[in-house]
Amino acid sequence: MNVLGIRWLGVRAERYDDMVAFLRDGPGLAVEFEEEATAELSVANGDRVQVFGTGHRYHELFAAQASGPVPLFEVDDVHAAVRELKAGGRRASWADRARPALGVGEPPRAGWEPV
Question: Is 20 helix (H, G, I), strand (E, B) or coil?
Fold first, then answer.
C-alpha cells in the first residue's frame, strides 16, 4: 500500500473551544465550516482537521470506538489497499468515491461507501 497522505483527521475534544482556538490561532489553520459542536479546519494543501465537541454524535462514537484521532488516508490504489488490509486481518470500513482514500469507522459524510 502506498499512502500519499492524511487528508482528513477527526479529533474528539473535551475542551472543544480551546482545541478549535489552538488550531486556528496557533498554526493558523483556516476554519472551513463550523456547526454545533464541530468545526473543520484546513491547512494550505487542503488537508482537513475536524474537531468534535461534547454533544456531537462523532464525539460519542470516537469515545466508544477509537482510542485517539481518526485519520483518512489517501492511497494510490484504494482497491489494492483494501485487499492488502483484509489479507493482513485488518479492515477499512469506508472509501471515498471521488478520490482514492479510505478510513475506519463510520463514514464522515455523504459520498463514502462501505468496503
Answer: helix
Residue showing cell 462514537? 61
* pLDDT, averaged across the chain: 83
Indicate which CATH number applies to the domain containing 16: 3.30.720.120
Top mean pLDDT of 13-17, 97-101, 106-110 is at 13-17
Which cell numbers in the block locate residue 100? 482514492
DSSP string of 56-115, one letter each residue:
SHHHHHHHHH-SS-EEEEEES-HHHHHHHHHHTT----EEESSSSEEESSS-SSTTEEE-
Q: What is the pTM of this model?
A: 0.78
Structural domain boundaries enclosing 46: 3-114
Angle at 28 between CA 54 and CA 13, to 5 degrees: 15
**Res 17: pLDDT:** 97
Structural domain tally of the chain? 1
Backbone phi and psi for residue 16, each to the nearest 5 degrees, phi listed first: -55, -55
